[in-house]
Design brief:
By secondary structure, the chain is α/β, with parallel strands linked by helices. The chain is 30% helix and 14% strand.
């Protein structure tokens, strides 16, 4: 074939095309410059459990992330798991996104309210949906707890590869469910129900996420990965060698543990030297008042819990090692925290648990923590987990909503500690900012828009705080309320935990919420109550009847009474 003659017109055309090609960015360069975003969520982890926040549990990988990143000591979530997760993924208050209450606690007066359907409704977009539309791969492995139906599962909500436990909890070694009403956990892969593969929960979820990332690792696109552990949520189960590792660690009990953690926090300057050490909860007996056998059981339970956290940390280390091996780490944002505070409730005497546990599990002392056992954390260790913070999961005190949070940015200066208020409502705007996604004005025309603000300027040191002194952020769940404004917090707790009256605290001076300032600062309290009233109206929060609470009784210490000689086959 003869070459094409180069006419003056063809020469001009080639020159123009060459110029255009030179001026265009290389394929994928726009997305390659965007960071990978990895969200890692623990389940019911205590504020003081990990080493970076004063804990004695062996967590070298999380500690390394903190030493090379930023610890947020005043980061807040919602007081219970599924409402918190709905806000994490949507950036929208739980009363607008469908999780005004948990699916397990829906009552007749919630019927017909789009904000109280018990699943993540379709009036909100997930961060996965928006990032997927913006060129990101989107992956999920772990707990979902935001809906069971086909169009409610993570595969239908923006995640392109998923391995998900749809339930709020399940056993850690197999597909055993939560209780007699849910005897088997429901797992899905890419939207379809599947059998659970073998493996301990945290190992399994990490394996699955790495496979998801690895399948498309070489195409150059950034990814958003949500690793949603079920540890250390009950039932207390862990690999036997790790339980043995902590066998003698907690023999001195929860009183000594909490004091030691408190002192370690002060030495790390995570809390001030003038913070008052809170008294033991009324419902928690003194450790020395327990019998020797009771102490053995409780020490064993805490050893299992510590083993669960240790294993969780090791799996985070596996993920980081994978990212470094394939040069994905340097351009990755990693955010770690817990969905809420510690869970103090021992459910073993409740009807849907008691006979089911007795018929199916072996809870003798030496078997606690193994695959065929089923035990709970309890209020003593739960308070030790929160250390100095008031309350626990399900309640709006700092112990229920303030969680150990670590952020690793590609450009982070190591070892920073940031003490200003921030919350889960701020995550979606932050991730969008990190991904350089600017939403058009009509992007949320048919959906509730994210309500928080980007933390990125604050994390990068460009701003000294996220919210101004005159800006408030409010929360509500189960009829309890909280509102934050500058250093102030007003909180209202319903019976039987409180008297439904507002109390005012200055959190910078009193993170333990032990010194109410209603009388000395009435104008501040009045302003915060007004702010919360406006929040309720804006987010369509209903007033819960007096008898409508998730858990109507306070947590109690339940003495463990093993059945001597009881042996069950392994499940």
């Amino acid at each position: 074939m003869k070459p094409i003659a180069r006419t003056p017109f063809l020469s001009l055309l080639l020159t123009i095309m060459t110029s255009m090609l030179v001026s265009l960015p290389a394929q994928g360069s726009e997305t390659v410059s965007k960071p990978n975003i990895i969200l890692i969520l623990a389940d019911d982890l205590g504020y003081g459990d990990i080493g970076a926040f004063g804990g004695e549990i062996d967590t070298p990988n999380l500690d390394a992330l903190a030493d090379n990143g930023i610890r947020l000591t005043n980061f807040h979530t919602q007081a219970s798991c599924s409402p918190a997760r709905s806000m994490i993924l949507s950036g929208v208050d739980n009363h607008l996104n469908g999780m005004g209450t948990m699916a397990e606690d829906l009552l007749p007066h919630h019927e017909g309210l789009p904000g109280y359907v018990g699943y993540l409704n379709h009036r909100v977009k997930t961060i996965a949906t928006v990032l997927k539309q913006s060129g990101y791969h989107t992956y999920l492995s772990g707990k979902w707890h935001l809906g069971y139906e086909q169009d409610q599962r993570p595969f239908a909500r923006g995640f392109e590869k998923t391995f998900a436990l749809l339930n709020g909890t399940a056993a850690h070694f197999d597909s055993t469910g939560a209780n007699a009403l849910q005897p088997k956990g429901t797992y899905t892969r890419n939207g379809k129900i599947t059998e659970r593969p073998q493996g301990y929960s945290s190992d399994l979820f990490t394996d699955e996420l790495i496979k998801q990332i690895d399948g498309e690792r070489e195409d150059g696109k950034p990814f958003f990965a949500y690793l949603s552990f079920t540890a250390p949520h009950w039932p207390l189960q862990a690999p036997a060698p790790l339980i043995e590792k902590y066998r003698d660690t907690y023999q001195s009990g929860w009183d000594r543990l909490r004091r030691t953690r408190f002192e370690r926090m002060q030495s790390k300057k995570l809390i001030g030297p003038d913070v008052t050490y809170p008294q033991r909860l009324q419902e928690v007996p003194a450790w020395n008042s327990l019998s020797a056998s009771e102490q053995q059981v409780e020490a064993r339970k805490m050893a299992v819990y510590a083993a669960m956290v240790d294993n969780l940390d090791a799996n985070i280390g596996r993920l980081v090692t994978y990212l470094k091996k394939y040069n994905l780490y340097d351009n990755s944002v990693i955010v770690f925290f817990s969905d809420n505070g510690t869970d103090p409730y021992d459910r073993s005497e409740r009807a849907i648990y008691k006979d089911w546990i007795a018929a199916n599990f072996d809870n003798r002392l030496e078997n606690i923590g193994h695959q065929n056992s089923y035990t709970f954390y309890g209020p003593g260790w739960a308070q030790a987990g929160g250390v100095h913070l008031r309350h626990h999961k399900f309640l709006p005190g700092e112990g229920g909503t303030r969680t150990p949070t670590i952020v690793r940015l590609p450009s982070t200066t190591g070892g920073q500690v940031k003490r200003e208020f921030a919350s889960i409502l701020d995550l979606v705007p932050t991730f969008l900012s990190m991904a350089k996604v600017t939403l058009p004005d009509d992007s949320y025309a048919q959906h509730h828009a994210p309500q928080g603000r980007s933390l990125l300027p604050w994390l990068q040191g460009k701003h000294t705080r996220v919210y101004g002194e005159d800006e408030s952020v409010s929360f509500e769940l189960f009829g309890h309320g909280a509102v934050y404004r500058g250093p102030w917090k007003a909180v209202k707790v319903r019976a039987p935990w409180g008297d439904s009256r507002w109390s005012l605290y200055h959190l910078e001076n009193d993170p333990t919420e032990s010194q109410p300032l209603n009388q000395t600062h009435p104008d501040v309290l009045k302003q915060l109550i007004s702010d919360h009233r406006a929040y309720r109206k804006r987010n369509q929060v209903i007033t819960e009847p007096d008898n409508a609470t998730a858990y109507p009784n306070k947590p109690t210490y339940i003495k463990f009474q093993p059945r001597e000689g009881l042996v069950r086959e392994s499940r």
